[in-house]
Each structure stands twice: as C-alpha cells, then as structure tokens.
Design a protein that fits this description.
alpha+beta, Muramoyl-pentapeptide Carboxypeptidase, domain 2, four-stranded antiparallel β-sheet, 4 helices, 4 strands, globular
Length: 181
C-alpha cells in the first residue's frame, strides 16, 4: 500500500522512561559481567563513542547549525541544541581556563539517573553515565575535533552537581577524512 503524497512519514520516538530503564538494565548487566568499575566505564565510553559517531549525522541534518568558529560556540551548541534535542535538558556552560579550550557542562537534571538513587554497593568508582562522555567525544571527532570528555562531578557519588568536562585537544587533519573525487 502506498502512502498519499501529501502525508509526511511518522517518526516514532522512543519513550524516555523506556530508554532510561533499558539503560539502567544495561549498566546492571555490565556490572555483573565485569568485576572492575574501570572495565564498565571503558565499555560505556566505547559504546557511547560508537553512538556519537553515528548520531552526529542526524544532529547536523535536524538542527541546521552553521559552522562554529570557536570552542565556546561548539560547547554552547552541544548544551543548548544537542542536549535539548536528545535528552530534553539544557546544561549550563562554564569556561574553565584562560586559553578557552576547557569547558564544563553543568546538568541540573540528568535524565539517565531518573530512577537511580545510588550506585550499587562496592561500585564507588563506577561512572554510571559514561555513555554521555563517549557520545560527545565520538560526535566531536566526526567533525574533526579531538577532545577529552570526562565526568568531573556526579550527584550519584555525592557531589552537589553533575558536571561533564570537555577539553578540546586539537583540530584533526581534515584532509585525512575528505573523500577522493
């Protein structure tokens, strides 16, 4: 059966609660599979990196953002557009150094921990939301920016805020990524 020409295709969005619960089940399974928190953290980062390298295409197509000219602009776009688009929140941005290559995203509310009250017993170095760091790092790499992305503070660990640190390392060589014509 064909679709009438005047109708737009319907896009189904995953229910946020379902995503958060599924993510919690994933982290719980990883904690069972790996003894060390560092291994779980690395797995979540790697998984996020893979998501970020693919998600950037959707982001660029849907957001219509223009080319950024500074790290500050890039961080603002991540906070005000990307986080809003995919997680429904808008973190605040602070610059952490005079060379303007280190920034923090302060999350007042973290949707990934909506149903989590505390980290599992004996898992004090678990970075529960490390997936977010990998996503940001992967997306930035796909637009030719190398960055170190880590959690600096986490409410699940008793900190007063949740803070993600982004340190821009260098601009990657675009020639290596260009297609041959």
């Amino acid at each position: 059966m064909s679709r009438p020409a005047h109708r737009r295709p319907e896009y189904h969005k995953i229910n946020k609660d379902l995503f958060v619960l599924t993510y919690g089940a994933l982290v719980a399974q990883l904690c069972k599979d790996y003894e060390k928190d560092e291994d779980v953290n690395k797995y979540l980062d790697t998984m996020g990196y893979g998501i970020g390298t693919r998600l950037i295409e959707d982001f660029l197509a849907r957001s219509c953002v223009r080319r950024c000219h500074s790290y500050s602009e890039i961080t603002d776009i991540i906070a005000q557009v990307a986080f809003k688009m995919y997680l429904g929140i808008t973190p605040s941005v602070t610059c952490n150094n005079s060379s303007r290559n280190e920034f923090s995203l302060i999350l007042d509310k973290n949707p990934l921990v909506e149903f989590v009250e505390e980290l599992p017993a004996g898992r004090s170095s678990l970075c529960y939301c490390n997936l977010l760091c990998g996503i940001i790092r992967g997306a930035l790499e796909m637009v030719h920016l190398a960055a170190d992305v880590t959690f600096l503070q986490d409410r699940l660990k008793g900190d007063s805020v949740t803070e993600i640190g982004i340190t821009f390392l260098k601009k990657l060589d675009e020639r290596k990524y260009r297609r041959k014509k």
